[in-house]
């Protein structure tokens, strides 16, 4: 990849490639005249350590509000990010955000089982929504979220930051342009050691499932965009628990296989027992991969021709800027609810394949 | 790894570590007084391009005989390797090798379905046997081969060259010494594009199966020695054929999962559609892997701490020298028939899991 192409990819990930196609490129566009205001709902680790810092780097969106059930967290955020009192909500008075013109977008960073409720409440309050992955704990909930945002004429975007990461954009490009020919096999795995036995991830009522819901979804995503098709059936296997008490409520480790209409296969694994983190494609004429594929940083890309020479960016900033730009330009964003719903269909298919022991047909296009 | 340790590993792979443990190290040992003579049965690509050249580098064994059904091949071998007329056989007169004192070992490089017959005939002729992988096309055949060699008081070794390859020895050491803690997950895949539609590999009567038999067996091997335990059950999936005419007789692509008693899992894939070639271990405290893992050369080893600094060796020479040394010292070799039989049990388990759609128990230790 040439240097200029790299720079283009990095910039376009943040600003959208259309700026380059426009004869007005370089001039201030109407949407550049203002930034959107976002409120973060749920001030856990991801909001605190990733999203809020990223929002200090964004061009099209800025942190203006918080929603939290823990009053003791408020002073820190007020001091650090100059959050105004009128932009601070709790879960009871959250719906009053309908009257708050500072807040255009609500970013939902709550446990999975709360995504549907708060997406629907935010849409009813007239706000655009960015919702963390998985979008919900079921296809049914996901569809209700899409419907609610459509009815409110608001955008729904899922927290798929990797659609704005230059390593993953390069994987997509290599597939799309068939640089190494047609993809035949994807190996995609994502797992980590879940330490704290009391974390919400391990409670099914909050998480909706185990590592599949939490990080396996990245391997599903990766397989789908690296094959460049939608899978038509899935097989899956859950493995015996080595820590049955800790993982009594959710699966500990599982594998699954996606079969695609063009004959490509994806073989995947996800676990709460150990770190594994890879997206690999074997194509007719070579291979390409990202290791530490799904992390917030530290991606390492290689192809059968050599390393990917890509400069990392802030994924969260690029993602939120990209979504905000779409909202400002009044066009669909790159990671809409429909994209999240396709992963939910695969996840439900995997759980069904595990419980039935049979292959399960998928129809992600309907 | 230090330089001296590397050198030690390389040398010990060829000569056996015991030379260093002995107070006589460096002096001529009794077994060094002579080389064994080997006859290659089956002068296909592997014998021609790998084994015969490797036998020019061996210390304990040398090429003295050939067995071929194609008389036109003989003059080339006679000229290139100075094979004496009395050491040349065909498949009809092969059993007369019993009277040939030049030949101590027969190396069987025939299609899989002929391994059992020629191993048993060679044992009856009083010869030690090295048999290519897979050792046979069934557990039953494999057991008969072991029994025949035992009855004849001859050694049986399987062509598992990677047990003598320094990258794979390093994978085994990292597991054995728990350098990164206990292994939790192995990903092992081996596949290539089978070009010629008329090759024997695609004929079930000769091969006994598809990519699983031919190269998937390396992924089984790799998973077993990288976990350092024997699997207790297997699940497996065959995928629809993209070239059903070409692969009408054998599977085209398949995946399988091995579950180990300590809780480790191996997720594997094998195919005749595309190149994939990897052995990866995720352990409690880090990861280690070999890419281009199962090739004759070109291994690339890495751990979560950095690259494996290992100088490649000639795998085939190390393998044959190692087996020959065990024979000369009258002790068991490192890759005996029993090791081959364990892989045959896994292979039969995989095919059974595919046809039944259920998990299949394995007992490799009985």
Features:
homodimer; 366 residues; alpha/beta; Rossmann fold; Dihydrodipicolinate Reductase, domain 2; 2 domains; nine-stranded mixed β-sheet; six-stranded parallel β-sheet; 34% helix; globular; disordered N terminus; NAD(P)-bd_dom_sf (chains A, B); oxidoreductase (chains A, B)
What does this structure look like?
Chain A folds into two domains: about 35-160, Rossmann fold; about 160-315 and about 335-360, 2-Layer Sandwich (Dihydrodipicolinate Reductase, domain 2), CATH 3.30.360. Helix content of chain A is about 35%, strand content about 20%. Chain A has helices at about 5-15, 20, 45-55, 75-80, 115-125, 140-150, 165-175, 205, 210-225, 315-330, 335-355; strands at about 35-40, 60-65, 90, 105-110, 130, 155-160, 185-190, 235-240, 255-260, 265-270, 275-285, 285-290, 300-305, 305, 360. In chain A, the strands form two sheets. Chain A has a nine-stranded mixed beta sheet. In chain A, α3 (about 45-55) links the parallel β1 (about 35-40) and β2 (about 60-65). The longest helix of chain A has 20 residues, at about 335-355. The first copy, chain A, is globular and about 55 Å long. The relative contact order of chain A is 0.16. The interface of A and B includes residues 184, 185 and 242 of A. Chains A, B: This is Tat (Twin-arginine translocation) pathway signal sequence. Chains A, B: InterPro entries: Gfo/Idh/MocA-like_OxRdtase_N, Gfo/Idh/MocA_oxidrdct_glycsds, GFO_IDH_MocA-like_dom, Glc-Fru_OxRdtase_bac, NAD(P)-bd_dom_sf, TAT_signal, TAT_signal_bac_arc.
